[in-house]
C-alpha cells in the first residue's frame, strides 16, 4: 500500500512505500529551502491565500521579496485576482502576511489551510475477463 508522507519544506509529498506497522518513523522536521528552520522547529503551516485587489493591483514580486513565506502565486480571473501559496512557520507568520496584504491595498483576503496534498495513484492494470 502506498501512503503519502508530507515532508516539511518539500515541494510535493513523497510516497511512503514502507509497510504499515513496520515501526519506522518518518524523519523529523526539516529546514526551509532557504536554510532557516521554521519558528518553533515544528511542521510548517501550508496555506492558500486568495486576494482581491483594490483600485491598484498588488506587486507580487515585492510581496514575495518581503515575505519568504510566499512560495508561488497565480494571477486569476474570476472571484479573486491573485492566489498565493504560503509555507509559514506558524499562525503568527500567516497572520503577519495576511495583515500585510490588507495594508498593501487588498480589499479581500481569504486564507485556506492546506490539510494534506493529494496526488493521483499510479494506474492499476487489471486483467480483462
Structure description:
The chain has 129 residues and is an alpha+beta fold. 16% of the residues lie in helices and 26% in strands. It has two helices and six strands. The strands form two sheets. A four-stranded antiparallel beta sheet has the order 4-5-3-6, covered by helices on one side. Strands 1-2 form a two-stranded antiparallel ribbon. The two termini are 25 Å apart.
Unreliable stretches (pLDDT < 50, length at least 5) are 1-7, 10-38
* First-to-last CA distance: 25 Å
Number of helices: 2
* Tally of DSSP β-strands: 6
- Percent helix range: 10-25%
Report strand %.
25-35%
Q: What class would the helix/strand composition place it in?
A: alpha+beta
Spell the H/E element sequence. EEEHEEHE
Largest sheet: 4 strands, antiparallel
Q: Gyration radius, to the nearest Å?
A: 18 Å
Shape, per Cα inertia axes: extended
**Order of strands across the widest beta sheet?**
4-5-3-6
- Please tell me the overall pLDDT: 76
What is the compact description of this entry?
The chain is of the alpha+beta class and 129 residues long. The protein is built from two helices and six strands; from the N terminus they run βββαββαβ. A hairpin with a 6-residue loop joins strand 4 and strand 5.
Which helices and strands, and how do they pair?
Layout: E1 3-5, E2 14-16, E3 45-52, H1 60-66, E4 70-75, E5 82-88, H2 91-103, E6 108-113
Antiparallel strand pairs: 1-2, 3-5, 3-6, 4-5
Amino acid at each position: 500500500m502506498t501512503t503519502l508522507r508530507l515532508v516539511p519544506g518539500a515541494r510535493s509529498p513523497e510516497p511512503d512505500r514502507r509497510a504499515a506497522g513496520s515501526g519506522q518513523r518518518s524523519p523529523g522536521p526539516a529546514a526551509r529551502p532557504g536554510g532557516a528552520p521554521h519558528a518553533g522547529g515544528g511542521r510548517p503551516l501550508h496555506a492558500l491565500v486568495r486576494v482581491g485587489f483594490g483600485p491598484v493591483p498588488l506587486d507580487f514580486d515585492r510581496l514575495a521579496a518581503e515575505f519568504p513565506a510566499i512560495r508561488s502565486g497565480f494571477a486569476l480571473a474570476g472571484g479573486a485576482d491573485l492566489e498565493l501559496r504560503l509555507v509559514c512557520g506558524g499562525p503568527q507568520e500567516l497572520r503577519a502576511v495576511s495583515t500585510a496584504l490588507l495594508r498593501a491595498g487588498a480589499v479581500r483576503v481569504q486564507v485556506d489551510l492546506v490539510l494534506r496534498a493529494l496526488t493521483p495513484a499510479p494506474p492499476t492494470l487489471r486483467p480483462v475477463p
